[in-house]
């Protein structure tokens, strides 16, 4: 009876995943058609075909190489990671070192904080209202303290984290599917996504946070008490660095209740105890870090979010489709106190909701937000300021190449989700449940294309499943033709 319940939930999750990937695929097709095919059809078609041939050819080579030799497997993985490292370092030479947007706030504030200066001037300043960002600021301060105020240190560390992320994708793919070739494919299709790795030039908290969350998933899948305890550590530190921990925790809790508690048609309470250990250690680490930051005098608000309303001010704005918009920012006096700002934010949120209700605009808004987050260009390349070093034509072509990497992931992850309808390993839900939770939450708050970066490794594993299935299908059909 319990197994039947578990199977029903699994099917529902996979069906929701298929709907999600299908919607994203349709939206990506619309975006590519409107922004590339209609403008430069010959170039768009030619580059797309080249991308398919390249991915198909290299992927097929990785699929064909035997996987029963551990040394050979290590050599292939090391080769992939080495190629990525070289490309990532070349990318750092192509883009300026200038820090922009929120990244600039971290980079400029770190040396001042090390000199004892205050990190905010008033209670509605950046690090006052979004005090949770102080966690990553401490990391940047540590890097500056060790290596000096040289941005190359942050950039090289980002490349290191990206390499380790690819390694974790490999380990997770093997742990879940037991297929080395599939793991190779997952690593390959993620490493060629320029939209994913382009932000290594910025003081961005997403890569280190992403790495720690992936390690958390892997440690939980290991299944022992020590790994669950370490998972609490990585989950806690990851949440301090990149504050999307609640979404990850929600996915882990649901995974535990459905796939750990129910084991062979019986209730296995020992596994729930392990998850409780993970969550307790997480809470101790996160609360302890918040208290330490408060007591140190760095930020009297600890790691709190004192402006959670802003995400909804932007996220429910139909005029900007839930994305950052200067016109919305201009409606506020950012020098106001937090109390005045909060009152104005609540007023605007109510106006946004009333507008959506009166115009029946909810479905359109949610559709456009999902497209902006998952299906369109991630705009990560835009944050690098590449157009200041290269011509507009070159910059646009690089952005097209970046989007093609994302498009490959979108297409292959759709195939992967379809494959999961036929056969799934329950371990994959440790990745899918946080992904789906994140996708739902983002429908209500502010969206940016770069916010999908944390879950692109999960999409890549789905894409690896899809690409592996495609090769298997062709192998089966080719075998029948030769009989």
Report on this model:
73% of the residues lie in helices and 1% in strands. It has 483 residues and is an all-alpha fold. The chain has one domain. Strands 1-2 form a two-stranded antiparallel sheet. Strand 1 (262-263) and strand 2 (266-267) form a beta hairpin. Helix 3 runs antiparallel to helix 7, helix 7 (151-177) runs antiparallel to helix 8 and helix 12 packs antiparallel against helix 13 (269-296).
Structural class: mainly alpha
Low-confidence stretches: none
Mean pLDDT across every amino acid position: 92
Number of domains: 1
| H and E string | HHHHHHHHHHHHEEHHHHHHHH
Based on CA atoms alone, the radius of gyration comes out at 23 Å
The largest β sheet comes out as:
2 strands, antiparallel
Helix content: over 70%
Percentage of residues in DSSP E strands: under 5%
Spatial gap, N to C terminus: 44 Å
The main sheet orders its strands as 1-2
Q: What assembly state would you assign to the polypeptide chains in this entry?
A: single chain
> Helical region count?
20
Count of DSSP strands: 2
Shape: globular
């Amino acid at each position: 009876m319990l197994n039947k319940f578990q199977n029903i939930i699994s099917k529902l999750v996979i069906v929701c995943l298929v709907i999600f990937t299908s919607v994203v695929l349709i939206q990506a097709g619309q975006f590519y058609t409107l922004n590339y095919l209609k403008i430069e059809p010959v170039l768009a078609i030619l580059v797309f075909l080249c991308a398919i041939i390249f991915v198909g050819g290299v992927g097929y080579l990785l699929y064909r190489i035997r996987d029963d030799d551990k040394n050979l497997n290590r050599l292939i993985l090391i080769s992939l990671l080495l190629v990525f490292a070289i490309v990532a370092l070349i990318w750092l030479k192509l883009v300026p070192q200038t820090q922009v947007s929120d990244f600039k706030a971290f980079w400029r504030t770190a040396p001042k904080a090390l000199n004892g200066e205050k990190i905010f001037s008033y209670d509605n300043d950046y690090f006052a209202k979004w005090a949770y960002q102080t966690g990553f600021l401490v990391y940047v301060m540590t890097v500056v303290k060790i290596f000096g105020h040289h941005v190359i240190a942050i950039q090289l560390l980002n490349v290191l984290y990206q390499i380790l992320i690819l390694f974790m994708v490999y380990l997770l793919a093997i742990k879940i599917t037991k297929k080395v070739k599939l793991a190779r494919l997952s690593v390959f299709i993620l490493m060629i996504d320029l939209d994913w790795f382009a932000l290594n030039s910025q003081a961005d908290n997403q890569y280190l946070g992403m790495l720690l969350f992936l390690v958390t998933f892997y440690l939980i899948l290991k299944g022992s008490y020590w790994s669950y305890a370490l998972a609490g550590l990585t989950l806690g530190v990851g949440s301090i660095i990149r504050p999307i921990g609640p979404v990850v925790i929600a996915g882990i809790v649901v995974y535990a209740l459905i796939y750990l508690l129910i084991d062979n048609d019986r209730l296995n309470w020992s596994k729930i105890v392990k998850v409780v250990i993970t969550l307790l250690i997480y809470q101790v680490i996160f609360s302890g870090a918040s208290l330490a930051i408060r007591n140190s005098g760095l930020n009297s608000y600890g790691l709190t979010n004192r402006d959670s309303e802003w995400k909804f001010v932007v996220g429910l704005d139909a005029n900007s489709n839930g994305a950052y918009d200067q016109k919305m920012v201009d409606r506020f006096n950012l020098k106001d106190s937090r109390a005045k700002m909060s009152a104005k934010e609540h007023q605007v949120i109510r106006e946004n909701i009333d507008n959506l209700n009166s115009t029946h605009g909810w479905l359109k808004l949610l559709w456009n937000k999902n497209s902006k987050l998952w299906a369109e260009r991630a705009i990560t390349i835009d944050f690098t300021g590449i157009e200041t070093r290269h011509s507009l034509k070159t910059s646009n072509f690089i952005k097209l190449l970046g989007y093609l990497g994302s498009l490959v992931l979108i297409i292959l992850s759709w195939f992967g989700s379809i494959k999961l309808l036929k056969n799934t390993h329950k371990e994959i839900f440790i990745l899918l449940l946080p992904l789906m939770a994140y996708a739902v939450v983002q429908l209500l708050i502010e969206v940016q294309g770069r916010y999908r970066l944390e879950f692109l490794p999960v999409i890549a594993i789905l894409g690896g499943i899809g690409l592996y299935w495609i090769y298997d299908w062709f192998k089966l059909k080719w075998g029948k033709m030769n009989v």
